[in-house]
What we know:
By secondary structure, the protein is α+β, with helices and mostly antiparallel strands. The protein is built from 4 helices and 6 strands; from the N terminus they run H-E-H-H-E-E-E-E-E-H. The termini are far apart.
Amino acid sequence: MKKKQKATIKILKGLLNNIALIDEKCDYLSYQCLNVCKNVTAYEVYKMMTSYQPKWLGRLFRIRDFLGKRVGIRSINGFDTLEEGEPDIGSKVHFFTIIEKKRDTLTLVVRDFHLDVCVSIRIIETNDFKEELFIITSVKNHNIWGKLYMLPVSIIHPYIVNKLLKNLNS
Length: 170
């Protein structure tokens, strides 16, 4: 595990109890945080984040799906509209499966032959008016295709998450 990842895990464990990672020895680890209004649930955060995707992100998803088909990576079609109502554990939201869902926690996983991804959304109470939101993404590669896929994704992923976080302020 890289030095930066170890430092990130140390920071996250200091802030959060029982963070969900895809694997103890993940190949990619990233987190973004933001102050949010009190009384928003982790699932509501996810819905707001994915309610609008910039056109360039939609194009990136289409390119990803087109190229991925060539090497057996299934299409994900980006962040299309979610169904009404609250999904349960085991339900699909976009291309993720919900494996944990509480008011302050939403853990989403997608497993593939090439790599596994876990996105954990955690909300931590900070004061009477605000809470701190953490988006933690971890990836475990299984083969060369997963590693090649993650080369560009690891660079652009934090930028994408930060753009989607702007939907919370809209």
